[in-house]
Amino acid sequence: MASTVGNSSDVIVFTLYGLNETKSTKLLFFAFTLQFYLLVIFLNLTLVATILLEKSLHDPMYIFICNLSVNSLYGTAGLYPKLLSDFLSDSHVISYIACITQIVVIYSFLFCEFTTLTVMAYDRYVAICKPLEYHAVMTPLRVFKFLLISWLLPFSDMIIPAVLMIRLPLCGSHIDKLYCENWAVVKLSCVDTTLNNLSGYILLFKYTLQFLFIVYSYILIIKACVKTSEGRSKFMQTCMPHLISLISFMATFLFDAMYTRYGARNAPQALRNIMAVEFLVIPPLLNPLIYGLNLTQIRRTLLKLCNKSIKPYT
């Protein structure tokens, strides 16, 4: 499991202790988690397929919504398959390489989600505050660049924290969560982790600036929308789903980040598990629902595609 060098260990296998209290009901949790994961896959794939198949939805706003769903599929793939296998196993272990991979996937999912929501705020700002310039600003090339940034930036943001984490000699292999998490691994280090903490604070500052940009964009959008009834209607239809998505993501992410660092260790394991996976449960399920149900054009396209698939059998 581990080879000892001095006081430290070159840990090659971590043990995840988040499921220790679910042994008696693990099959029930497995069934529920599997159904939930299949629902997340179905809803997000449906939204992606709807947007890709319908040419009228090939506008920047819908393309960015599609990107959110693709990212949800990517992020949940970093958690649920491993979690489901752990429900069926008595030993909840993960190799060092698999642990690092899981950390990179989950954190790049978080950063991609936030970057996409930032881009969407800019898109809505241009559409509502500068409608005459919209098509000149949000050109296909610029949309492509934004999509590229929303994926490349999160991975580049992961490079330094990942390298700083990998360099650490570890003195333990106990992770008190359902999955591998950066801070949980860093805490196992035998040496000073100041650089890791500094890297984390720099990323926090960077994404705080992005959040402030989103807030500022929506202040301008709201000011522009309250002037006319048409503006208020447009805000409710195209901006409200984005705001709900943003609020749900930020709330669940902050809950996990704050609880990971400052939460009470004597809290019930079930509560800690819920806090740990909220950001990988609520946004991936909520996003396709709010966009699919609230945006008229997506809803109409879904109904049209459903009718086409039903007609051959009637």
Please tell me about this protein's structure.
By secondary structure, the protein is mostly helical. It is built from twelve helices and five strands. It has helices at residues 26-53, 60-77, 80-87, 96-129, 134-137, 140-166, 182-186, 194-225, 229-262, 269-277, 282-294, 296-310, and strands at 2-5, 8-11, 13-16, 93-95, 174-175. Strands 4-3-5 form a three-stranded mixed sheet. Helix 11 crosses helix 12. The longest helix has 34 residues, at 96-129. The chain is globular, with a radius of gyration of 22 Å.
The parts where pLDDT drops under 50 for at least 5 residues are: 1-9
Task: Please list the strands of the largest sheet in the order they lie side by side.
Answer: 4-3-5
Distance, first to last CA: 60 Å
- Largest sheet data: 3 strands, mixed
Secondary-structure-based class equals mainly alpha
- Number of E-type strands: 5
**Beta content:** 5-15%
Q: H/E element string?
A: EEEHHHEHHHEHHHHHH
Determine the number of helices (DSSP H or I, runs of at least 4 residues). 12
Roughly how much helix do the residues carry, as a percent range?
Answer: over 70%
Average of per-residue pLDDT values:
83
Multimerization status: single chain
Radius of gyration: 22 Å
General form: globular
